[in-house]
Amino acid sequence: NEYREGILLFTIMEKEVWNRASDDTVGLRNFYNTNRTKYAAGDRVRATIFSTNDSVFFQDIKSRIASGDTISQDQARAFRSVQGPRNFAAGESKAVDRVPKTLGIHPVRVDNNFCLVQVSSLVPAGVRGLDEIRAQAISDYQDYLEKKWVKELRTKYPVRMNGKGKKFVIQELTKP
């Protein structure tokens, strides 16, 4: 019975909260607009991070960039991972935190990886856009929907305590 009720609760939560928050773009936009100040950010940089663990490849790319060359799409595909371009705030990326906040391509070593951080622009402090913090906004909207739904349920179905049942349970639990 507990398993069946758990599945039922999961299904209802999925319908009333989780899927609704993801699918309700108008509701999400309204929630974001109402809570914009929560999504304020300090100075950021718009950057792309190219990382590899191949030191020979990294030195080759670094020397090409130093001579004024750019990274071709084939060379970009040769990197182990490419993040961005996106806005990075302080503390979001070790690689971005270790390079100067100036435009250009900056080499840096992070842990066992060699990284090139391409800073394309400096972003002033302000409110982050919904596209930039969509995952966080959806999570906050889900929390809001869940609290609202539980409040509606408590209003519609008030909790009543069964005094006899409570007394019986307490006696059963305190038996030697």
Tags for this model:
23% strand, single chain, elongated, 176 residues, alpha+beta, four-stranded antiparallel sheet, 50% helix, two-stranded antiparallel ribbon
Summarize the structure.
By secondary structure, this protein is of the alpha+beta class. It contains seven helices and six strands.
Can you walk me through this structure?
The protein is an alpha+beta fold and 176 residues long. It is built from seven helices and six strands, in the order ααββααβαβββαα. The strands form two sheets. Strands 3-2-5-4 form a four-stranded antiparallel sheet. A hairpin with a 2-residue loop joins strand 4 (104-110) and strand 5 (113-123). Helix 1 packs across helix 6. The longest helix has 23 residues, at 134-156. It is elongated, with a radius of gyration of 26 Å. The two termini are 29 Å apart.
Task: Detail the topology: elements first, then pairings.
Elements: H1 2-23, H2 25-34, E1 40-41, E2 44-52, H3 55-66, H4 73-78, E3 81-89, H5 94-97, E4 104-110, E5 113-123, E6 126-127, H6 134-156, H7 163-173
Antiparallel strand pairs: 1-6, 2-3, 2-5, 4-5
Helix pairs in contact: 1-6
Strand content: 15-25%
Outline the biggest β-sheet: 4 strands, antiparallel
Distance between the termini: 29 Å
Q: Any idea what the shape is?
A: elongated
Number of helices: 7
What spatial order of strands do you see in the largest sheet? 3-2-5-4
Helix content: 40-55%
Radius of gyration: 26 Å
Low-confidence stretches: none
Order of SSEs, N→C? HHEEHHEHEEEHH
Number of strands: 6
The SS-based structural class is alpha+beta
Mean pLDDT across residues: 87
